[in-house]
Amino acid sequence: MGMRKVAIVGAGITKFVRRAQETGKELSWQASKMALDSCGLSLDDVDMVTLGTAPDAFDGVHMKGEYLADGAGAHRKPYMRHYVGGGTGVFSPIHGWFHVASGMADICLVVAEEKMSSCHPHPQGAFLTIFDHTTEQPLKPTLIWIFALEMNRYMQTYGISKADIARVSVKNKGNALDHPSAQVAEKITVEDVLASETLCWPVNRLDISPASDGAAAVVLASERVARRLTDKPVWIDGVGFAIDTAYWATRDLAYPRYVETAARMAYDMAGIKEPAKEIHVAEPYDPFDYKELHHMEGLMLCPRGEAARLTAEGYTARDGNLPICPSGGALGVGNPIAATGLMKVIEIFLQLRGEAGKRQVPGKPTCGLAQAWGDLMQMGTVIVLRSH
Amino acid sequence: MDLDTCELGGTPLKSSDFEKCKVLTTEWKPNLGYAWDNGVAIGRYLAELKEGRIIARVCHECHRIMLPPRMFCELCFRPTDEWAYVEDTGVVNTFSIARVNWDASRRGPKEPPLMPAVIEIDGATKGMGIMHMLGEVDPDDVTIGMKVRAVWKKPEDRTGAITDILYFKPIRAAAPKKAAAGRKR
Amino acid sequence: MATTDKMSKNTSPTHWEGEIPVNYIYTYGLAGEAFFRAVKDKGTFLGARCDACDITFVPPKIYCDRCFEELKKFIDVGTVGYVDTFTVSFKNMDGSDKTRPRILAMIKIEGTDGGIIHYLEGIGIEEVALGLPVQAIFKPKNQRKGGIEDILGFGPLKR
Fold first, then answer.
1. Best mutation site among B131, B166, B177 for testing chain A: the one with the most A CBs within 10 Å?
2. What count of Cα atoms within 13 Å lies in the side-chain half-sphere of residue A97?
3. H-type helices in C15-93, by residue range?
């Protein structure tokens, strides 16, 4: 393709919490500083900065990208904010990848931030405007409706039960007990999930990730620079992103074909022909438990309708054939919308370096994937990472 | 690097910290009002709803009859070709039984749950759904594939809005199949 | 056909009205909390010192945005400053006339590299000039809540 090789060489993250005292700028700085320190760089070494953050309406700061810039180290540097809804956090390193792969930058700092707690009466209220203002908002919908409608269609199409899906929440909240940033890690059972409050059937409270505040950051470097900075660079071998129609009620809700489109783009670039065999560990986006299954199928990591059965068989546990969300995911670590995707990228980065501590999956994985999803259930972003 | 050995940022607060003013805050209640242009397609859509009709647009290139109507086809990227009335009946593609309002507040114990659904409208291309509500049906009786008909506001109460349709109710040909009881509490 | 002809012949609803109904409660952050506590409890301003870059930030920050190092030293920088720039506002947001013109100024705090934007009080439009020394006027302590309104404005230096 004529693009340079790019590696992730450092990472930083804050705790994910329901209400942080820090401003969005301070959260961004905490994550960014940690990322630079982790690879021994100073702010002077950074050529460009890219920042991802979801709607201004969460933090309640207009032009949030500009506001967060100095906490992201962008003082007098080339800087851009990108935003693709919940897909942002995985798009963040893709955006940075363009800067370095093109030769415009040798070192790019990539930051993702969200401070949802400022939004009242509840951050969920800001999602009202995700619906069409004329043909849908007058029905007073809530975001959970969209998930519930999609989950129901998915369950009915493949004959999957709520208990099948609840296993994902149990797995991820349990995995998160080993993640230092985790907001809602806990040991629960399938019965706990089914007994939790029914919000919008078939969605129960424990099927959902929380609203969160948090930030994450990674440092990207060109090949020549990466090899000087670390003996364990993690290469960005594939990037993919695609969006589907905003007329969401006209789509097949049982299958996220926009994730497949993005995945194919990333797999082509990475030379992956059989993802189920060649991907050793994956972090698909899991804001609701059924989404992990939905996305596994869209990523072609298993046949359609099969993800629930494989989960029940332990295929996706940390010691399973294809560990999925060893971090604990959004369900266990938390979901500060943009930062969640980058948390997942960081998890794959650490897994491939053998530095994931208690979360480390066995077998020395060398190829991993992170995926996020957003906007009006329409955006897929995929990144394929390798250590070699 | 090992996350376990790093000191992570982020200072968690509890909602009681705010209530007891343990942390200083400032508030803003924005006054964000909008007047969104309907455009030609939605303008006609709303005008027809006021008359008790649902109208769609047709693309001859990809042979789709589209709801909501739109003046360009997003698949073929060309202007759409003509208007077409569709039925006010349809089939439930998916549904939910909701106890939560838009702002995460809960519906009271005596308030019936809301039943949002995606309804594929008869006369439009298969799979062409719109979001609306279900009514006059017990939550336990709702099924995917159920045939429904729009219940309209009285003509004098209609204003040219999606809410000119109050909800969609089942068309009962025979006794309804009872789905698993109690699953939607 | 003139545009006005088109509009009056239109029979479809032209627009849909609605609102975005959320509101916000903001924390001040780690640095902002310290700054406004000093305003509330002590009637003074704090700054943050970066020795490496030789900058004193007002209001304070927990990090220097130039070198990105953590700033732990918050110092009392007093309440005296000078007018760095100003504007005079005659109209309200809705276009009506203000009952009296208000001077909004960027006030640099003496001895620092930062400042505060606020109103000038007790200074006439004819007197205001760049470089004019001013000092913060606070509400009485028992009326302060810990916010920018605890400062009534900046006025002539107290003798």
1. B131
2. 23
3. 29-42
Asked whether the beta carbons of residue A71 and residue C65 sit closer than 8 angstroms, the reply is yes
Considering its fold, how many domains does chain B have in total?
Answer: 1
Angle at A51 between CA A49 and CA A56, to 5 degrees: 145
> Which chains, if any, share at least 3 CB pairs under 8 A with chain C?
A, B
Residue B9 counted as domain residue? no
Contact between A217 and A96 under an 8 Å Cβ cutoff? The reply is no
C5 in a structural domain: no
Task: List chain A pLDDT tens, one digit each, 388 residues.
Answer: 578 999 999 999 999 999 999 999 999 999 999 999 999 999 999 999 999 998 898 889 999 999 999 999 999 999 999 999 889 999 999 999 999 999 999 999 999 999 999 999 888 888 888 889 899 999 988 889 999 999 999 999 999 999 999 999 999 999 999 999 999 999 999 999 999 999 999 999 999 999 999 999 999 999 999 999 999 999 999 999 999 988 999 999 999 999 999 999 999 999 999 999 999 999 999 999 999 999 999 999 999 999 999 999 999 999 999 999 999 999 999 999 999 999 999 999 999 999 999 999 999 999 999 999 987 778 999 999 999 8
CB contact under 8 A, B104 and A17: no
In a domain, B80, yes or no: yes
pTM of the predicted model as reported, rounded to 2 decimal places: 0.94
Which residues have a Cβ under 8 Å from the Cβ of C136 and sit 6 or more positions away? C43, C45, C79, C81, C116, C118, C151, C153, C154
Cα(C123)–Cα(C120) distance, integer angstroms: 6
- Evaluate whether residue C150 is within a structural domain: yes
How close C67 gets to chain A, by Cα (Å)? 6
Tell which B residues from 30 to 69 touch C, by Cβ distance under 8 Å.
Answer: 30, 32-38, 40, 42-44, 46-47
Q: Where in the sequence is the domain holding B142, given as residue range(s)?
A: 39-170
Specify the CATH number for the domain of residue C76: 2.40.50.140
Instruction: Work out the end-to-end distance of chain C between its first and last CA atoms, rounded to an integer number of angstroms.
Output: 71
Nearest Cα of chain B lies from the Cα of A342 at a distance, in angstroms, of 15
Contact status, residue B133 vs residue B169, Cβ threshold 8 Å: no
* C76 falls within a domain: yes
CA atoms within 13 A on the CB side of B89: 7
CB contact under 8 A, A142 and B96: no
Residue in chain B closest to A212 (alpha carbons) equals: B12
- What is the span of the domain harbouring residue C105? 29-155
All partners of chain A with 3 or more CB pairs under 8 angstroms: B, C
Residue C19 lies in a domain: no
- Beta-bridge partners for B28: C24
Question: Is the residue at B34 inside a domain?
Answer: no
pLDDT digits (tens, 9 = 90+) for C22-80: 899 999 999 999 999 999 999 999 999 999 999 999 999 999 999 999 999 899 999 99
Q: What is the pLDDT along chain B (185 residues), one digit of tens a residue?
A: 889 889 999 999 999 999 898 999 999 998 888 899 999 999 999 999 999 999 999 999 999 999 999 999 999 999 999 999 999 999 999 999 999 887 778 888 889 999 999 999 999 999 899 999 999 999 999 999 999 999 999 999 999 999 999 999 999 865 555 554 444 44
**What is the rounded CA–CA span in Å between residue A311 and residue A322?**
10
Domain A6-119+210-386 has CATH 3.30.1300.10: no
Per the structure block, which two tokens stand in for A269? 């670039």
Q: How many domains does chain C have?
A: 1
A71: which chain C residues are within 8 Å (Cβ-Cβ)?
63, 65
Q: Where are the alpha helices (DSSP H) in A83-235?
A: 88-101, 143-158, 162-175, 190-195, 223-229
Q: How far is C25 from chain B (nearest CA, A)?
A: 5
Chain C hits for A77, CB-CB cut-off 8 Å, are: none
